[in-house]
Design goal:
CATH topology: Immunoglobulin-like
Order of helices and strands: HHEEEEEEEEEE
Helix content: 10-25%
CATH superfamily: Golgi alpha-mannosidase II
Number of strands: 10
Structural class: alpha+beta
Shape: globular
Largest sheet: 8 strands, antiparallel
Radius of gyration: 16 Å
Number of domains: 1
CATH architecture: Sandwich
Length: about 170
């Protein structure tokens, strides 16, 4: 017992990790610690190769996009989806949203009042060791260079979010 879960090093744990960060942010403005960087199956880095695991990129995007002020999301929790709203980390006016579609089968939709920057995390399977950002695999290149973490432009209006996906929308 106490060995962690068997999916911690896969995309499946991205859904749990980001939901946990969103929930904790609503009750505390403190720091959240993860107890290992690279020494176990649930570390953010593979303990043999030191390559980033899916949660590494999820937490990296959280830290780059989600500011410290937490807002009411304005979205009722609906079956399968969790919505979190924060100030923008870059300090510019606006809001950064995190929308987690926990449904494994159904898309969910959100209405955007204006254009946004979109960062959607997904994977070919829930147990995948590779996460995709806007349909591009997130893998190191060269001498441990981070992949491109650029958003795609998301026009205002109805946005469909795929099953088992995580989307950051920065407005």
């Amino acid at each position: 017992m106490g060995n962690g879960d068997t999916w911690a090093s896969t995309y499946l744990d991205v859904l749990r990790t980001l939901n946990e960060l969103g929930e904790f942010a609503t009750i505390t403005d403190g720091i959240i610690f993860h107890n290992t960087l690279a020494s176990s199956d649930y570390g953010f880095l593979d303990h043999r190769t030191h390559d980033p695991r899916p949660n590494y990129f999820a937490v990296l995007l959280w830290n780059r996009l989600m500011g410290t002020t937490v807002y009411e999301s304005g979205e009722p929790l609906r079956e399968g989806a969790h919505v979190y709203a924060h100030s923008r980390r870059d300090g510019k006016p606006g809001v950064a949203y995190l929308i987690i579609n926990n449904s494994l089968t159904d898309t969910t939709t959100v209405e955007l009042p204006r254009d946004a920057q979109r960062y959607t995390l997904s994977a070919p399977t829930l147990r995948s060791p590779v996460t995709y950002l806007n349909d591009r695999p997130l893998e190191l290149s060269g001498e441990f260079d981070l992949p491109d973490l650029s958003p795609v432009a998301q026009p205002a209006g109805t946005v469909e979010l795929a099953p088992a996906s995580v989307t950051f929308l920065v407005l």
